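Re: that chain you flagged

S.,

Sorry for the slow reply, it's been a week of failed gels. I finally had a moment to sit down with the sequence you sent. For the record, here it is as I used it:
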Amino acid sequence: MKYSTILSIALALAVALVPATAQAKKKKDKDRQQVTLADDRNTPKTVQVKNAAKQLYGEWNVLELNKKAVYTPERAYLYLDFAGGNRLMGCLGCNAVNGRFTLKGDKMSFSDLITTNKGCSAEAAERSLLKALHDAHSFTLTRLDNTEFLTINDKHNNPLIKLRRQNIDFLNGGWLVKELNGDNVEKRNIKLVADVEMLTVNANSGCNIINGVITINPNKEFAVEFEDLVSSHNQCPNLSTETRMLIALEETAYCKKLNDHETALLDRDGKTIVVLKRISVSQLKR
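Prediction finished late last night. Pasting the structure tokens below so you have them in one place:
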């Protein structure tokens, strides 16, 4: 059974379903996508690829083309789908792209590329990205802290495309709210489940059920927001901690992995406003 399925079952046991009118809808980011480049003062370390299907699987955001930053109306990304028979999916910055990819050791190539044909301001960038995919010959995988980078090179080992994985999977799963603005609230037993894949957040304050939407900005490191938060609005004694938690979730702009057991939620100024403590599926049921 998939971990996300187990979490869903556990959440169903831990909290009751709210009315359909309280179900949050995902928001579409209409802002112009501007890529933030990695800090050049830090050097990513090369990662040995032992299991490409696991290490390269998923969505990679386009950061650079031919060592230059990419600016496109929509987010340019490539999705490597090993489960679908080495299929490529993604967006060139305006138009969708589909095709196939082949891997052999550190060699990588793309074929059968097809795109949609919408006219937009990203035509030059899209042509460059398509050409780079046609010229792809090899790849390197590197890591800087919790962030992974995939670089696709030409036959002379010159970098063509630099991509970054949106890596906030550490936020996925069940949590106990340990601290709110520096105060230990562990005894209040406030539980939270984040599903990064489905972009949903659910919480049980011990009084109210709270549902909402997770919004991720792939162009900013560890940027995450909790939006469209809806509470069941039960009247219970001592709601002040629950209110503080709701405000903190609404103020969250970033997340940060503290260790294997704790994650922090930060405001726009980088101040820690929530500390979450990892809990097991069985603890979610209590």
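What I noticed first: Residues 123-135 form the longest helix (13 residues).

Talk soon,
D.
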